[in-house]
Specification:
The protein has helices at about 25-30, 40-50, 60-75, 85-100, 145-150, 165-180, 190-195, 200-210, 215-225, 230-235, 275-290, 295-310, 320-330, and strands at about 5-10, 15-20, 35-40, 55-60, 75-80, 100-105, 115-120, 125-130, 150-160, 185-190, 210-215, 240-245, 250-255, 260-265. By secondary structure, the protein is of the alpha/beta class. It has a single domain, classed as UDP-N-acetylmuramoyl-L-alanine:D-glutamate ligase (3-Layer(aba) Sandwich). Strand 13 (about 250-255) and strand 14 form a beta hairpin.
């Protein structure tokens, strides 16, 4: 095994987020399904952007958010994702490297522009996303850096990136390198509609290529096509080493074989925006795991990180998660 340089390397869409407040009328008039993520083309992306109110622009993407939160906790991270050599691509690269994260994926010189995600935040704190994937879907086999994968304790795969065939091949290559290097592989199921599109592939990944699965209640029930959370829990416990299952205000449930941990959600004054909650939870959990913490503490760390994220608009932390954890878990 090579030297461990990184706690986690994330592989996913390299996206710049555009967040703005919206009401239910905006959601309905634009034919959106509240709380979900839909893929759009560049023409629609430009039209939607023109309709949005004042917004916040910041680098995002699910796996990138996880690695950003990991860095805020004090962990060492790397990211693999595709941008174009354009303005948004430069913004993404600057933002992630400024956090101390290794990001060496070569930018595309031609083709689609860098990806962006329009996030509509309604008063009930739900986020409805429209994503133009642009250059990010061109991630391919040549972008998987074997040196980085083999030097990371955990390779974290973002389910959102499973749509394009080239990315599937890249994921499988990364998982193979990680397993051959005696490293762990983690997968985020990302979204119930994503699970619906790729159920058979995700089941194969969970059973044969992945050690750790992150999913919320709806996603894991969709994966196994069952009516209750308990039924899904019983199935997934046999398919992977560790399942970290989040349940919003009910907290999370961690299963490892016959071992089960039920961890309450962290108390907060107000839920403002749920964007990035699952990403932050994964960061806290993986930070704990790579620090050799017990599973219940890993879940607490995930819950603390997620609670901070949902207390404000945006998927990146406003404070040092390391300092916050030190106050919560002295």
């Amino acid at each position: 095994m090579s030297e461990t340089r990184f706690d986690v390397v994330g592989i996913g869409n390299a996206i710049v987020d555009v967040l703005a407040h919206a009401d239910d009328q905006f959601i309905n008039e634009n034919g959106l399904i509240k709380g979900t993520m839909g893929l759009i083309d560049e023409e629609i992306a430009e039209a939607v952007y023109a309709k949005m109110g004042p917004g916040i622009e910041c680098s995002g993407g699910s796996a990138a958010n996880t690695i950003a939160a990991l860095a805020s906790l004090g962990g060492t991270g790397a990211f693999i994702g595709k941008v174009k050599d354009d303005q948004l691509g430069a913004v993404f690269r600057h933002d992630i490297q400024a956090l101390g994260i290794t990001f060496e994926t070569e930018a595309a010189r031609d083709g689609a522009s860098s990806a962006r995600c329009m996030i509509h935040v309604t008063p009930d704190a739900q986020r409805t996303m429209q994503t133009y994937l642009g250059a990010s879907i061109d991630l391919g086999l040549d972008d998987i850096d074997e040196t980085i994968i083999s030097a990371a304790a955990v390779t974290y795969l973002e389910g959102y990136l499973w749509d394009p065939e080239k990315a599937k091949q890249a994921f499988r290559k990364a998982a193979q390198i990680a397993r051959q290097s005696d490293r762990l592989v983690a997968l985020s199921l990302s979204d119930p509609f994503c699970v619906d599109r790729h159920r058979d592939d995700f089941l194969d990944l969970v059973k044969n290529h992945v050690n750790i699965v992150f999913a919320n209640e709806e996603e894991v029930m969709s994966l196994y096509q069952v009516e209750t959370f308990d039924a899904a829990l019983q199935k997934i416990r046999d398919d992977c080493d560790i399942a970290a299952l989040t349940r919003s205000e009910k907290g999370s449930v961690i299963v490892r074989g016959d071992e089960v941990h039920i961890v309450e959600a962290e108390a907060i004054e107000q839920v403002v925006d749920t964007t990035g909650a699952g990403d932050a939870y994964a960061a806290g959990f993986l930070y704990g795991l790579t620090s050799e913490q017990p599973l219940d503490i890993c879940a607490r760390l995930g819950g603390i990180a997620a609670a901070e994220i949902i207390s404000h608009v945006g998927a990146r932390s406003d404070v040092s998660l390391k300092e916050l954890v030190e106050k919560k878990l002295p």
